[in-house]
Automatic annotation (TrEMBL):
Annotated GO biological process: methylation
Pathway: Quinol/quinone metabolism; menaquinone biosynthesis; menaquinol from 1,4-dihydroxy-2-naphthoate: step 2/2
Keyword check for S-adenosyl-L-methionine: yes
InterPro entries to which the protein is assigned, alphabetical: SAM-dependent_MTases_sf (IPR029063), UbiE/COQ5_MeTrFase (IPR004033), UbiE/COQ5_MeTrFase_CS (IPR023576)
Keywords per UniProt: Menaquinone biosynthesis, Methyltransferase, S-adenosyl-L-methionine, Transferase
Binding site for S-adenosyl-L-methionine: 62, 80, 102-103, 119
UniProt-listed PANTHER family: 2-METHOXY-6-POLYPRENYL-1,4-BENZOQUINOL METHYLASE, MITOCHONDRIAL, METHYLTRANSFERASE
Catalytic activity, reaction form: a 2-demethylmenaquinol + S-adenosyl-L-methionine = a menaquinol + S-adenosyl-L-homocysteine + H(+)
Organism: Frondihabitans peucedani
Annotated function: Methyltransferase required for the conversion of demethylmenaquinol (DMKH2) to menaquinol (MKH2).
Name of the protein this chain belongs to: Demethylmenaquinone methyltransferase
Length: 243
């Protein structure tokens, strides 16, 4: 599957990521012109994990971000729906607990985590609103959500230049650096089809999160969204709207 029609079949997307797992981190560093490291630093700061806290890192890939979060002393669980990514992650980050799982059906009980984060993975979920409701469910009251995702640059000139990069430059670089260049065609298409910052903020509020805010990174190429599960939360947000 290479077309990002937003009706993504989890097994197909997982298989696609299995095929790029071995060189995934190196390719991402090249395609992001080194900004991936800066985005990771910003995400870890936003999570603000404390020693003893339990953090769920969804779409963790090979665990690079999970390891950075764990440096705070927090217990990090890394979840990804690609068995290939998890296999590589377990070898590279043996101190991190890795689980193969689906963001739409998290294999955890209610109120288990102090923080939940997902970086560049919500875009690959078939029903992202359902996934957000699951993140809300597994968070403890008062728990924190941090979503790092590609987004829409607000400046028209930059937006046009970025679209040209996605359509014409990125696929060429991926052919040289990746073992599965069609996966990066999918990447470019999925970024272009992803909603802008305000829409994702509405999705977070719809899932039940409060104190929702975002800030742009790299002029809006990436946005960092944050939300909280209310301290006294008896209501369960509906996932029916997540299709």
């Amino acid at each position: 599957m290479t077309k990002a029609d937003m009706n993504k079949q989890p097994s197909e997307v997982a298989s696609m990521f299995d095929g790029v797992a071995a060189h995934y981190d190196v390719t991402n560093d090249i395609l992001s012109a080194g900004n991936a490291v800066l985005w990771r630093i910003a995400t870890v700061k936003a999570i603000a994990a404390a020693p003893g806290e339990r953090v769920l890192d969804i779409a963790a890939g090979t665990g690079t971000s999970s390891a950075a979060i764990a440096k705070s002393g927090a217990e990090v669980v890394a979840l990804d729906f690609s068995a290939g990514m998890v296999e590589v992650g377990r070898k590279r980050q043996p101190a991190i607990e890795f689980i193969v799982g689906d963001a739409e059906q998290l294999p955890f009980g209610d109120d288990e985590f102090d923080a939940v984060t997902i970086s560049f993975g919500l875009r690959n979920v078939n029903r992202p609103k359902v996934a957000l409701s699951e993140m809300y469910r597994v968070l403890k009251p008062g728990g924190r959500l941090v979503v790092c995702e590609f987004s829409t640059p607000p400046l028209a000139g930059l937006r046009l230049g970025y679209q040209a990069y996605l359509r014409h430059v990125l696929p060429g670089i991926a052919k040289v650096t990746s073992s599965n260049s069609p996966a990066y065609t999918y990447l470019a298409e999925s970024i272009e089809k992803w909603p802008e910052q305000q829409v994702l903020s509405q999705w977070l509020r719809g899932a039940g999160f409060t104190r929702v805010a975002y800030r742009n990174l790299t002029a809006g190429i990436v946005a960092l969204h944050r939300g909280r599960k209310p301290q006294s939360s008896s209501r369960r947000p509906s996932s029916a709207a997540g299709a």
